[in-house]
Amino acid sequence: MITVHSLAFSRAVRVVWLLEELGETYELKTYARTEAYRAPPALKAIHPLGKSPVIEDGGLVLGESAAILRYVDGRYGGHRHSPDPGTDAHAIHDEWLDFVEGSMARSVIAAFWAKKNGGAVEEKMRTEYATIMAYLARTLADRDFLMGGRPMLADIQISYLLAMAEASGVLGDHPAVLAYFKRLEAMAGLRRAVARTGPIMPPL
């Protein structure tokens, strides 16, 4: 059985959401953040980076959200949350998975910390964020989800950063992306995951 190590207000909600979608039995171990909004030292006993999510599955200890999602969907889901391997769609889906914590994350995280600390987002990050949102809006102009008519791993992956953007007050100016996030929020699997892990974002 998979054990999910879940830090409060963390990316672990992605993993729990996928497990809920698959109907897999799992154990959830939760950790509170420190006053500095960091992970507690106990997580370093599980994985040297001391971050969340981390899963244990038998002798396997695995970190990084995208790697965990790929592993869980492949081993327990028959790859049904990603396009067929070897296709162009599969390559594009992999691009979206990497885009979230690569191209997208920096500007969204900048907005989060600016909101949390009562500061302003620097111009470079505002410009980068606007480019990201325009890219997403164009993609979603003719579809409900990133790859088309049904959600896949990439949609699970991006949900956390969209929640962060909404909590930071920077998503409302992008109605197409906000509507997409609301579609994700309404999904039963994500609602069940949040019921297990707690809110995706803290009050800011």
Q: Which features does this protein show?
A:
204 residues; Glutaredoxin; 4 strands; alpha+beta; Glutathione S-transferase Yfyf (Class Pi), Chain A, domain 2; 52% helix; globular; 4-stranded mixed sheet
Straight-line N-to-C gap: 35 Å
**Oligomeric form:** single chain
Give me the number of helical elements.
7
Largest sheet: 4 strands, mixed
Structural classification: alpha+beta
Q: Mean pLDDT across all residues, rounded?
A: 97
Number of strands: 4
| Count of discrete domains | 2
| Relative helix content | 40-55%
Q: Quick summary of this structure?
A:
The chain is an alpha+beta fold and 204 residues long.
Can you walk me through this structure?
The chain has 204 residues and is an alpha+beta fold. It has 2 domains: 2-81 and 190-197, 3-Layer(aba) Sandwich (Glutaredoxin), CATH 3.40.30.10; 88-187, Glutathione S-transferase Yfyf (Class Pi), Chain A, domain 2. 52% of the residues lie in helices and 10% in strands. It is built from 7 helices and 4 strands; from the N terminus they run E-H-E-E-E-H-H-H-H-H-H. The chain has helices at 12-22, 65-76, 88-117, 123-139, 153-167, 175-185, 188-197; strands at 2-7, 26-31, 54-57, 60-63. The protein has a 4-stranded mixed sheet, covered by helices on one side. Strand 1, helix 1 (12-22) and strand 2 (26-31) form a beta-alpha-beta unit. Helix 5 packs across helix 6 (175-185). The longest helix is centred in the middle third of the chain and has 30 residues, at 88-117. The radius of gyration is 17 Å and the shape is globular. The chain starts with a strand and ends in a 7-residue tail after the last helix. The model has no long low-confidence stretch (mean pLDDT 97). Residues 1-80 form the GST N-terminal domain. InterPro entries: Glutathione-S-Trfase_C-like (IPR010987), Glutathione-S-Trfase_C_sf (IPR036282), Glutathione_S-Trfase (IPR040079), Glutathione_S-Trfase_N (IPR004045), Thioredoxin-like_sf (IPR036249).
